[in-house]
UniProtKB/TrEMBL annotation:
ATP binds at K300, D346, R370, S371, N372. Mg(2+) 2 binds at E419, N421. This is Probable alpha-L-glutamate ligase. Mg(2+) 1 binds at D407, E419. GO terms for cellular component: cytoplasm. Its cofactor is Mn(2+); Mg(2+). Mn(2+) 1 binds at D407, E419. GO terms for biological process: SOS response; translation. It holds the Pfam family Zn_protease. It comes from Salipiger bermudensis (strain DSM 26914 / JCM 13377 / KCTC 12554 / HTCC2601) (Pelagibaca bermudensis). Keywords: ATP-binding, Ligase, Magnesium, Manganese, Metal-binding, Nucleotide-binding, Protein biosynthesis. It is an enzyme of class 6 (ligase). Binds 2 magnesium or manganese ions per subunit.
Length: 461
């Protein structure tokens, strides 16, 4: 058997943790291996516990800080060489040295005052390994400069702690987001928006749920239903005040849910949309109808969703009757021109991080001008034009939404935005496009909350 010789100090890599270079002390007098770690924080579910921690891999450069995460294997008492006993988190990870790699157990402890960020104990050594206590670096040397040479897109992704705010934990979109997050090594907690309560104060505000203070999340995915928009956006604002990245911001949710406000924002950004009018007094109904070019026209409740509260009036008399009914219910509504050339079709563009990642054409039932899938419509893949793509991206940006479902009509004079949805469903778009949209959403979150690469140190001239 060929022997693998180690010196009393060696360079090694921990690729599972995204650490390409660590200088370790090899100590056969110590049974347990230890890795420098601070800001240690357990997270995850009971059946998949995780631990997150930070490390300064270069003792001479405290500005080089790497965030790591790993599955949590155990927590046990470890007695150090000076006789002190400490309860430490234990992880299993892979050590790599000169093309050879093997799994080891490592305990996490603060070694910030020590010259070596890692101690390699005898339990981490295979049978064919021998240690030469009078020699150093018997294996190839590495360099801390490797951290600064890693391109951002190839950096190790640490496991994230994520949460979904929803009152529908079992629906398709929620399940797919959880699946996509866990497939990429993250943990996801489902939180009922209406059961959150908040401690609002100038410093150290909190969000509580089920009798406990919620931990810090790397990102929160709001899927706020229309019935709890006001309270849901208050919860999102609280997370925002704590510095948590929210996939849909409170402002974007609020604006997109108010159709009048949304159309005013679209108009301010010169984004094409059907001619729209709004009035409150019943005396103005005739003028409102004339503003949109007369019948046929579409009337929409300001907070309608999934095609509910949307009515097509084919004649002026029918429009006046619907307007009268809405006003009798003291319901605010919009009046819009009917885009005949759309022929009961619209296009849903799914925007993630400023890009249209999928699109589908939706058709309504033969006797229904609405194309919503919830109203029995059908969908098929569609190739959108450059103008439609740019309009969808511009509309999502105008609403300040990183993820949005933008509904377009194909008008004679270009695309017209019907609606921008801040919590677009995934089922229709995934099944139609056959794309992993949930995975793209999680990937976008990773890009938003991943740590930035450390800045290169200035070298002395």
């Amino acid at each position: 058997m060929t022997q693998f010789t180690l010196g009393w100090e060696e360079w090694l890599a921990l690729p599972d943790l995204g650490l390409p270079a660590i200088r370790a002390k090899v100590d056969t007098g110590a049974r347990t291996s230890a890795l420098h770690a601070f800001a240690i924080e357990p997270f995850g579910s009971e059946d998949k516990p995780m631990v997150r921690f930070a490390i300064h891999p270069d003792p001479a450069d405290p500005g080089l800080e790497i965030i790591c995460s790993a599955p949590l294997k155990d927590r046990r008492e470890v007695t150090s060489s000076n006789g002190e006993t400490e309860l430490r988190f234990v992880i299993e990870t892979t050590v790599a040295m000169d093309g050879r790699s093997w799994p080891i157990e490592v305990t996490l402890t603060d070694r910030g005052s020590m010259a070596y960020r890692m101690l390699l104990g005898r339990s981490a050594l295979d049978d064919d390994m021998i240690v030469s206590p009078s020699h150093s670096f018997q294996q190839p040397e590495l360099s801390f400069d490797e951290y600064r040479a890693i391109p951002r897109h190839k950096q190790h992704r640490r496991a994230l702690r994520l949460a979904i705010l929803t009152r529908e934990p079992s629906n398709y979109s929620t399940r797919r987001l959880i699946e996509a997050a866990e497939a990429r090594g993250h943990t996801m907690e489902v939180i009922d928006t209406s059961r959150c309560y908040m401690n609002i104060r100038a410093v150290g505000g909190e969000v509580h749920y089920d009798g406990r203070r919620l931990p810090h999340y790397d990102a929160v995915i709001p899927r706020i239903g229309a019935s709890v928009t006001s309270y849901g956006t208050a919860v999102v604002r609280q997370f925002e005040s704590l510095g948590t990245y929210c996939l849909s911001g409170s402002e974007g949710i609020t604006v997109s849910r108010d159709k009048l406000h949304a159309h005013q924002v679209l108009a301010r950004h010169r984004i094409g949309m059907p001619t729209t009018a709004f009035a409150r007094s019943p005396k103005d109904s005739g003028n409102v109808i004339s503003l949109v070019g007369g019948a046929p026209l579409v009337l929409k409740l300001l907070e309608s969703t999934q095609g509910k509260g949307v009515v097509l009036a084919e004649t002026k008399k029918a429009a006046e009757s619907v307007i009268s009914a809405f006003q009798g219910l003291k319901a605010d509504f919009l009046v819009q021109s009917f885009v005949k050339e759309a022929a009961g079709e619209d296009i849903r563009c799914f925007v993630v991080g400023g890009k249209v990642v999928a699109a589908m054409r939706r058709r309504g039932k033969p006797d229904d001008f609405r194309s919503n899938l919830h109203q029995g419509g059908t969908a098929e893949p569609v190739k959108i034009t450059r103008s439609e793509r740019e309009t969808a991206i511009k509309a999502a940006r105008a609403m300040k939404l990183d993820v949005a479902g933008v509904d377009l009509l194909r008008g004679e004079d270009g695309p017209k935005v019907l609606e921008v949805n801040s919590s677009p469903g995934l089922e229709g778009i995934e099944k139609t496009s056959e794309k992993d949209i949930a995975g793209l959403v999680i990937q976008h979150i990773e890009e938003k909350v991943a740590p930035r690469p450390p800045k290169p140190r200035r070298r002395a001239p």
